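lol ok so funny story. i was supposed to be doing the assay writeup but got distracted and ended up predicting the structure for this chain instead. priorities right. anyway since i did it might as well share w the group, maybe its usefull for someone
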Amino acid sequence: MLPIVTDLVTIVRPLLVTGYGNAVTYGWGPDASRTTVEACVEPNGTGEATGGRDTVTVHIRVFLHPGTEVKATDRIEWNGRTYEIDGEPQRWPDPTGGGEHHVELTATYTAGG
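and the output, tada:
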């Protein structure tokens, strides 16, 4: 069972777009697919870089129901911000035997810079 599920997040999956020279890039426009799912979102730290270009980063940890389709190349929309997924989402096994218990990932929002 997940921690307390009190949030809704939107998983944004980009379109693959073929550009000049057959280079494949991600298309984040209005045609990117969006799927809203239940989640538990926890703060996972913040950071700040000052100097010529001040930057603030916010990190979150997201717990999703087993079987939720999410990839490292997706983004997470939550609380009015768009977060980049950090690395591969982890699929945790059920400790009572068989199957998946939950999906867990970390994500980062960056402002400034």
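The longest strand covers residues 33-49. The mean pLDDT is 91.
back to the writeup now i swear
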